[in-house]
Structures
1.
Amino acid sequence: MSIQVLRLAALLYAGAAAAYVVFFARPRHVRAATIGGALLAVAFLVHAIGIGLGCKEFGGTEFFTQRGSLVLLGWLLAGAYLVMQRLYGLPTVGAFVTPLVLVVLVPTLFGQPGQSEVDPDFIRSRWLLQAHIAVAVLGVALFAIAALVAVMYLLQEREVKGKHFGALFSRLPSLESLDRLNQRLVRAGFLVFTVALLAGTLVASQVWKRAWEWDPQQVRALLVWILYGALVQVRHLGWHGRRFALMTIAGFALLVGSWAALGAFPGATRHGGTYQ
Amino acid sequence: MVGLSHKSAPIAVRERVALSGDALRDAVAGLRAMEEVSEAMVVSTCNRVEAYVVASAPEAARRFFLDRAAEAAGHLYESHGHEAIRHLFRVAASLDSMVLGEQQILGQVKEAYGVASAAQAAGAFMSRLCNRAFATAKRVRNETEIGRGASSVSQVAVELVQKIFGDLKGRAILLVGAGKMGALSAKALGELGADRVLVTNRSFEKGLQLAQQVGGQAQPWEQLTQLLTVADVVLVSTGAPSYVITRDLAVLAMRGRKQRSMCFIDVAVPRNVDPACGDLPNVYAYDIDDLQKVVQETRQARAEEAIRAEAIVEAEMMAFTRERETRAALPVLASLRQRAEAIARAEAERTLSLVGGKLDEKGRKSVEAMAQAIVNKLLHGPTARLKEAAAQGDSSLPGAAAELFGIEEEPQAGRGEKRGAEVVALSEHKR
């Protein structure tokens, strides 16, 4: 049931992405951006219903599978972008974020959703664990958008520095606005990620009886946290523009790379498992 | 339409006949007051002065110029009917401008129309004509890319700065040297809302003068290094034969400003900014060639778009003239139809009063319908032919029809307008 609703959401996301891409290609069609925003908002709501139905079906255990976390990530990406657009405008960013939402969501739409071995009652009894999951995924979503904005920055910088004043030059926003947006996203992401780490540590101390175990997942999270923390700090030392953009992308590469590496060695971490 | 523009007359003549404000309004009113003129509008900008009149003789508009400056005689061009309409459409769409596709001209034509209506010189025809011209200009702007890109060096500078900094609120512009190009660009950058404009020049006196001109503060030349740490956009146009901004100086400045981005625009020849500055992170450096290249590209692109724009103007012009001529035939058509329908109604009533008692509701309806159908069938051919004749500019057929059917022609406002815009082309200076 929930999968059908998610498929509908994906269809709406595809529409939003198409509208945003049209707006990017033909900036004169301002209405395309408006349509994209509206479709994205509707898709976000439908997606929320899909997640709600999923929780009813699987009792929240689906978030302990890769599929479930992707469903959540796609949803929070869309939500974070909607909030961001409300605050700062820049609909051209939508042409980059909405396709990513699709990329994240599409693999979850096929096949049988795998059951996690986690006991639903175990999850239900721990609101801190639920919060940890939601907040951590939100952090990842913010870092993902930051990385996309950084890519846009590098593209535009290449145009401006290389004196190509062509199509990309006129369509991408100004370097300053991209840099500032990137900085805001990294800051917000770092804040959210810090909360997620604290919540995770608390859960670990309750369930594992020890807060720090040198579990690969913990090490990985700490590395990511340190890297983004450094990024927030070096801003004051004159790390602007290009370097900042490169670091943002590097941070996200570390995040995704380490996640993939962990996935390649099942059993390496106790995180997200049965907690027994 | 009679006028002169940057294409036909030197500035010395244009400035003699150019008008603005109250003088323009009085002049338009004066033009309208001439006996043979029924409607008038004068477009007066720094590149053109053109008088558009609906008149029985074009001499009136000619006199308008000659009364102001006798030397205008050799520089005037003149066109009538279709040609005049096309000319106005082309002007409004910026196809006749010095810089193709520039945006101000449409506003200026709108203003001219506003002045003409305020002076009660523009009537129904001028109103329809101008509205169509505005719509045409809008279509050209929307459907072609004629307005795209930056068409002057200072505009390119503005666009570049915009892509680097967004706007310039809270930022400072520094003008190094008293070159003309630098001052021009500084003025253009003013639209981005910079907080401060700083000016520095080797000779402080000249710097002061320039600062007054561009509304900035003059700073001593010795402080150049400090100024570079403050200013975000640096416009350089000195007469120095070598680099004023060396790479080392730029490195120093960037350290002083904690690597915040800065942009050098070098409009001097020989160059005053070492191009190697542009290789530093967060430093953007452009010279006059970079900017001029963009201007060239824009001009070329616009010239290509102009072909499409001309087609739109042509189509709109044709549509407008067709409508106008159909409109001229309409009074005859309307009275013809009115009369025929009155006859049909009367005849139907007469028949019904004779035999109506024997007919039911359905029967009565059929009699009325039959009368109406006869009128429609009978008038179908003449209507089509009258419209067609009118669209081809043949005004003799409507007249003949009126005479044939015994319709009296009331004098119409449309009559004068028709004569004023007779389709004869005469254009001395375009050939």
2.
Amino acid sequence: MNEPRMLPPSMRPKKRYIIFEIISESPVEFKEFSATAWNSFLSTLGEAHISEARIWIIPNLYDGRKQKGVLRCGNAYVEDVRAALAMVSIVGESRAIIKAIGVTGTIKSAREKYADPNLKDYA
Amino acid sequence: MDYYDLHTYSSLTTGENTTDEMIAMARKLGLRGIGVEGLREKPATEMDMVSCYIIEAKNPQQLMEEARRYRDSYEVLMVSGGDYEVNRAACENAMIDVLCHPGKGRKDSGLDHVCVKAAKENNVAIEINFREILENYRKRRVRILEGIRRNVLLCRKFGAPVVTFSGAATKWGMRAGRELAAVAAMVGMELPDAIASASTVPQQIVMGNRQRLSGKKWEGVVVNE
């Protein structure tokens, strides 16, 4: 076995899934969004603070047509991540606003609460 | 406070600067002692020179062979981490003093609760390697810091020792002990423990091994003097 074992549930860090929507002049691709979001996280929050947040922008759950996606972060860092996303004003070449439309504890509850059929296609 | 940096390289092995240049820099930085990889003959200096060897093993069997071969030849025996099986074998081996950069080249932290519990039982210290942090930037640095944080959290939970070293391959990669302690505090250690990770913890490893190598100390025996 060449992988560390999964930690027992009591020791696993607590996470939240933020479902976000991008409002922009033209469609935004995942890679452009990811690069821009990371620039914003690093410049707004810094490398040290971001390493606590354990952020993962989930590629499989990004819907380019509806401009919605999901990112995962630590439960204590949701507001910091929201604030860093608010600092984004341009993605690629188009002006954009990133809005969080929900925060859930699991991907399944994200689908149920926000009834977004596209999320299930990419899971 | 006596700070020790036991993980440095000079031109004896893969470093860029000579041992004397490393010693001069360590003196300017206020370190009490440095460990230079591969050092056998200690130069005459007031700096406490520690002879160290870093095992680079591809599998646990090779690790065990090299540990047996080098244990009594060097004051501090370290293992170059990265491969999970080698990390785990190092944590389970009481001959090893320090497991260096367990998360190197990995997407995860390189350790789990099983490894850290074993490290606590066998008194294997887990290293916070400053060079890994210094030589990476932005997102890569964030991922490395995440892995180090997780290992620090596990070590705090199970009581495994933690050490903070520079891993410097040039004299400009070295840092003062208090600054290394600050980096350890940044990744989740309490400040007194962070300071100890760069001072008393490595000092105890060195002193304990020196006593054992000189024949004055045996495992499990308390000598009443």
